[in-house]
Design goal:
This protein has two helices and four strands, in the order E-E-H-E-H-E. A four-stranded antiparallel β-sheet has the order 3-1-2-4. It has one domain. It is globular, with a radius of gyration of 13 Å. A hairpin with a 3-residue loop joins strand 1 and strand 2. The chain is an alpha+beta fold. The longest helix has 17 residues. Helices cover about 30% and strands about 25% of the residues.
């Protein structure tokens, strides 16, 4: 069963993984290399993950993007990376 991991530092990301170790490896693959002293990660519930995606979609709309914009991730449990810090795009 996959779980949802929210990273706040050094960059924001929402990752789906089997466990925290896999989530950290995926973070390093997709987001950036990390050191232990800068990592801020926690497991969140599926409903909290959906809330994060909805919050992000609302921010996209406020910035003039439609939520169906091709770069906006679809909420699909087969994905590994749901959301990423906009500064990295």
């Amino acid at each position: 069963m996959k779980k949802y991991y929210l990273f706040k530092e050094p960059y924001y990301a929402l990752i789906i993984a089997i466990n925290q170790m896999e989530a950290i490896a995926l973070y390093e693959k997709y987001v950036c290399e990390i050191t232990d002293n800068e990592l801020d990660v926690r497991e969140i519930s599926e409903s909290d993950a959906i809330t994060e995606v909805e919050r992000s979609a609302e921010q996209w709309r406020k910035n003039g993007y439609d939520e169906n914009h091709e770069n906006f991730p679809k909420f699909d449990s087969n994905l590994e990376l749901l959301l990423i810090d906009g500064d990295l795009l």
